[in-house]
């Protein structure tokens, strides 16, 4: 039980970090823009939710990677704190992960491969444009639902229903290439499992 629980926690943590943080990205379809505004910020939320939710069949791992290389600042810094438990009689677990640009992109790709029947929804809570449209702060609430592979304790895997809610604050900048880039994000996430053993 202990080994499978630890594996369960690690898999959960990595997958949901990827999914939840990735759906907080903001920009405008890869098109060049002259300033950040409410419209191009909101459009990119929808675009990235579609990409990380596996709804873009036209994008393979290479094109997904290219997309995020363009839209993550080189010094990007991402922090996510996740609260979860695997059974009603177990204590809640809290884990915190800090990632730079390449770790973040790697987690996105892992999340795309691991989750099945994945659904996401993102609600924009607030957008604030700063410094004449060269920076912005954004808060979002993200909702996730899907099936995740989990070690069954007997050497096999079982698919477990999982849901997550995340509150995120993002720091955006307009790059020299005139695209929106994520410079930082901080998320607090709560994850729930059904039929946990």
Overview of the molecule:
This protein is an alpha+beta fold and 197 residues long. The protein has a single domain (2-193), classed as Roll (Nuclear Transport Factor 2, Chain: A). 31% of the residues lie in helices and 43% in strands. The protein has 4 helices and 6 strands. Helix 1 (2-22) packs across helix 4 (101-114) and helix 3 (61-71) packs antiparallel against helix 4. The longest helix is centred in the N-terminal third of the chain and has 21 residues, at 2-22. The radius of gyration is 17 Å and the shape is globular. The relative contact order is 0.25.
Question: How would you describe this structure in keywords?
Answer:
single chain, 197 residues, alpha+beta, Nuclear Transport Factor 2, Chain: A, six-stranded mixed β-sheet, 4 helices, 31% helix, globular, disordered N terminus
Mind sketching the topology for me?
Layout: H1 2-22, H2 38-52, H3 61-71, E1 72-84, E2 93-99, H4 101-114, E3 116-130, E4 135-151, E5 157-174, E6 180-193
Parallel strand pairs: 1-6
Antiparallel strand pairs: 1-2, 3-4, 4-5, 5-6
Helix pairs in contact: 1-4, 3-4
Radius of gyration, rounded?
17 Å
> How is the CATH topology named?
Nuclear Transport Factor 2, Chain: A
Q: In CATH's first tier, which class applies?
A: Alpha Beta
Topology, number of strands: 6
Low-confidence stretches: 1-13, 20-29
Structural class: alpha+beta
Order of helices and strands: HHHEEHEEEE
What is the helical fraction, as a range of percent? 25-40%
Q: How much of the sequence is in beta strands?
A: 35-45%
Largest sheet: 6 strands, mixed
Mean pLDDT: 76
The rough form would be described as globular
Distance between the termini: 9 Å
**Strand arrangement in the largest pleated sheet:** 2-1-6-5-4-3
Number of domains: 1
CATH architecture type: Roll
Oligomer class? single chain
User: Please, how many helices?
Assistant: 4
């Amino acid at each position: 039980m202990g080994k499978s629980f630890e594996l369960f926690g690690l898999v959960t943590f990595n997958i949901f970090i990827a999914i939840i943080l990735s759906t907080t990205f903001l920009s405008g379809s890869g098109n060049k823009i002259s300033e950040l505004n409410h419209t191009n910020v909101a459009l990119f939320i929808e675009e990235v939710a579609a990409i990380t939710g596996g709804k873009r069949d036209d994008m393979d791992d290479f094109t997904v990677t290219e997309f995020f290389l363009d839209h993550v600042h080189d010094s990007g810094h991402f922090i996510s704190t996740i609260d979860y438990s695997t059974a009603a009689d177990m204590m809640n677990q809290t884990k915190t992960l800090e990632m730079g640009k390449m770790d973040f992109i790697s987690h996105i790709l892992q999340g795309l491969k691991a989750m099945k029947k994945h659904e996401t929804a993102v609600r924009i809570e607030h957008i604030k444009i700063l410094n004449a449209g060269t920076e912005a702060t954004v808060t979002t609430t993200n909702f996730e639902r899907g099936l995740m592979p989990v070690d069954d304790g007997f050497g096999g895997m079982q698919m477990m229903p999982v849901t997550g809610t995340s509150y995120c604050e993002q720091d955006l900048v307009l790059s020299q290439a005139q695209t929106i880039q994520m410079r930082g994000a901080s998320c607090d996430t709560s994850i729930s499992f059904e039929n946990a053993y």
